[in-house]
Design goal:
It comes from Paramaledivibacter caminithermalis (strain DSM 15212 / CIP 107654 / DViRD3) (Clostridium caminithermale). The chain is of the alpha/beta class and 279 residues long. It has 2 domains: 212 residues, Rossmann fold; 60 residues, no CATH class. Helix content is 37%, strand content 29%. The chain has a 6-stranded mixed beta sheet with strand order 6-7-8-3-9-10, with helices on both faces. Strands 2-1-4-5 form a 4-stranded antiparallel beta sheet, covered by helices on one side. A hairpin with a 2-residue loop joins strand 1 and strand 2. Helix 3 packs across helix 4 and helix 8 packs across helix 10. The chain is globular.
């Protein structure tokens, strides 16, 4: 279990994380969803013990998070937002080197390397130098590196940023399999579709605050399953949410401009709640 208790972090006069509390049960796939600058990466960095919080407490698997808690860090796998591969080493050599950093026995390193190369579909490029990999292959190798020591908890910071749709879907399948195998996953993302597809629960974050946390479907139900998207006087797009399709159709029948009736998405939920916060 991951527990975040009333945690805050400021940089000068900017409150990057503002009194955040969150519980992530074992084997949960939690998405931390919000725009750039919402505070997602700062929260992850505090959970990893890379930076200290100003207030509050963080507990992972019953242990307090701190810079010096090396036993806890061995239980965690990390996929950062920025590429962390040694570009002069091959795919296989990157995995072996990562295993050595965790002081794993060489026999176990070789076993885990073979398993991960197959799981990530990287066998055919195992001897390719990393600087010659595609963006999608680099992201898959970063996930493999994070799994080399078989951690129970995985933190991913924007794992599919900057890659094409095919590679993103392949990474989604990998993450789904990891969660099905019992891994606890916390993933930051600003891709709405990614959170909706992958996550058991989603925390909506903006301006350093988590303002809702629930399953994607429950969040959608809170504002209404059906959305009427329409133009007001052909100048501005408006959105109206309804519990039933009949109510949506009744509202749309009174609109004198273009409109669309569709299923509500997490993007609608985030947009709706973020607007309420601003107001």
């Amino acid at each position: 279990m991951v527990e975040i208790k009333s945690v805050s972090k400021s940089y000068d006069d900017v409150k990057a994380v503002d009194n955040v509390s969150l519980i992530i049960p074992d084997a949960t796939f939690m998405g931390l969803l919000g725009p750039n600058g919402a505070g997602k990466t700062t929260l992850i960095r505090m959970l990893l013990g890379l930076i200290d919080s100003d207030e509050g407490r963080m507990v992972i698997d019953g242990e307090d998070v701190s810079r010096d808690n090396h036993s806890l860090k061995k239980k965690i796998g990390v996929v950062p937002q920025h590429i962390n591969l040694d570009k002069e080493l091959s795919v296989k050599e990157n995995l072996i080197f990562s295993g050595l950093l965790y002081k794993m026995e060489r026999q176990l390193i070789n076993k885990r390397t073979s398993e991960l190369l197959e799981a990530m579909n990287l066998i055919r490029v195992k001897d390719r130098v990393c600087k010659h990999l595609s963006g999608g292959m680099k992201r898959k190798l970063m996930i493999a590196k994070a799994l080399i020591h078989d951690p129970n908890i995985i933190f991913l910071d924007e794992p599919s940023v900057g890659i094409d749709l095919k590679a993103r879907r392949e990474i989604w399948d990998i993450l789904k399999r990891m969660n099905s195998a019992g891994k606890t996953i916390l993933m930051t993302t600003h891709y709405i579709e990614e959170a909706e597809y992958l996550c058991d629960k989603v925390s909506l974050m903006n301006d350093g605050k988590i303002f809702y946390c629930d399953t994607p479907m429950n969040l959608i139900e809170m504002i209404g399953r059906f959305t009427v998207e329409y133009f007001e006087n052909s100048l501005e797009t408006k959105f109206k949410y309804f519990k039933t399709l009949e109510l949506a159709k009744d509202f749309a029948s009174k609109i004198n401009d273009k409109y669309t009736i569709r299923d509500t998405t997490l993007e609608d939920v985030f947009y709706s709640f973020a607007n309420r916060m601003v107001k």
